Amino acid sequence: MVVVMQERASEEQIEAVIERLVDLGMDVHRSSGASRTVLGVVGPNKIDSALIQILDGVKEVVRISEPYKLAGRTFKPNDTVVTIDDVRIGGDEVIVMAGPCSAETEEQVDASAAAVKRAGAKVLRGGAFKPRSSPYSFQGLGEVGLRMLRDAANAHGLKLISEVMDVSQIDLIARYCDIFQVGARNMQNFTLLRELGHQQKPVLLKRGLSATIEEWLMSAEYILSGGNNGVILCERGIRTFETATRNTFDISAIPVVKKLSHLPVVADPSHGAGRRDMVAPMARAAVAADADGLLIEVHNDPDRALSDGAQSMFPAQFERLMAELRIIAPAIGRSICLEPVARRGWA
Ligand code: PEP
Ligand code: MN
After folding, report:
1. Which of 107, 111, 110, 145 is nearest to 129 (CA)?
2. Which of 21, 153, 297, 316 has the smallest C-beta neighbourhood within 10 Å, fewest atoms?
3. Separation of alpha carbons 180 and 195, rounded Å
4. Residue extents of the structural domains in the chain
5. Which comes out higher in pLDDT, residue 67 or 272?
């Protein structure tokens, strides 16, 4: 339920409504805008909305039909911007996160980080804990990989995102990374999501391989209801009957989710397509569809990558893509890192 207070509601009236709701066993999340206060009410009990409607200062009580509340636009109409220092995800600028699927060696991580920075990425991606279909495949370097990634991110002035697969990895990953990545296979690992709800750092939540948009938003709700407002959604392709691509990249999910939710939506065309020759067209389409950012696999030597080499772009391909995005983004009123960094003399 959402309680919309009157424009002139006093602080005492707002506090009294909150107190009543808390007495009824509910959690109340307050959102105060310039002109009015909105209370998001969640909890185990079914409340008679008429009891709230009659309280002083209440304008309206909206029963929400969607099962998610904190993730929905009814509760928070304005876009959420997730901020990490000067990087703003969900604002005007399209933020590009790029790097290898996995951290493999210091040289590989550093060369990939240098390449993505040069082309205009703001965030380095790279896995140290890898969710592989086979237990015999490369599983990631763990803390050694995290250190390589952090060093490269620092050396090249990038933020860092890396995947967390289990509650036991949270503290370690928090020490090295700026953003937690929850992979498609863990979208419904509710124990993990609950714990991430208590973290200070933002969480990029990928859509599960066979998750509906509602299930995806319910998973975001787990994180938000723990108090962590920094949730970024990431469309990465879903399982369908089609076999021509690794997954079916659901571009329509971008405008659908942006309508339902205030959270930033990022697109991962690498896992969506599964082939490096199809990543650029999907990335261009995602930006045209108003994605707030991209997550792209780029490797300095993708043909020798230990994971996801076939879908990892060569640095030159990525640079070309970024140049194309600099044309597409302004066409829909968005900005993107304006020029390759080297040409601005920043590198
Ligand atoms: C990844 O980003 O490398 C990854 C494993 O992604 P996903 O969870 O989307 O498969
Ligand atoms: Mn990958």
Report:
1. 145
2. 316
3. 12
4. 2-62, 82-344
5. 272
Lowest mean pLDDT among 66-75, 99-108, 214-223, 275-284: 66-75
Tens of pLDDT along 336-346? 987 666 555 54
| Cα 190 to middle of ligand 2, angstroms | 22
Cα of 242 to ligand 1 centre, how many Å?
19
Position 330 confidence tier, pLDDT thresholds 50, 70, 90: very high
CATH of domain 82-344: 3.20.20.70
Q: Ligand 2 center to residue 12 CA distance, Å?
A: 52
Interval 21-77: pLDDT, tens: 999 999 999 998 888 999 999 887 778 889 999 999 999 999 877 889 999 999 999
Residues in contact with ligand 1 (CB, 6 Å cut-off): 101, 127, 131, 183-185, 206, 236, 268, 271
Cβ–Cβ < 8 Å for 128, 140: yes
Closest Cα to atom 1 of ligand 1: 101
DSSP 157: T
CATH of domain 2-62: 3.30.70.1140
> Cβ of 49: how many Cβ atoms within 10 Å?
16
How would you classify residue 46: left for phi > 0, otherwise alpha for psi between -120 and 50, otherwise beta?
beta
Q: Which two tokens stand for residue 180?
A: 């937690």
> Which ligand minimizes its atom distance to the CA of 268?
1
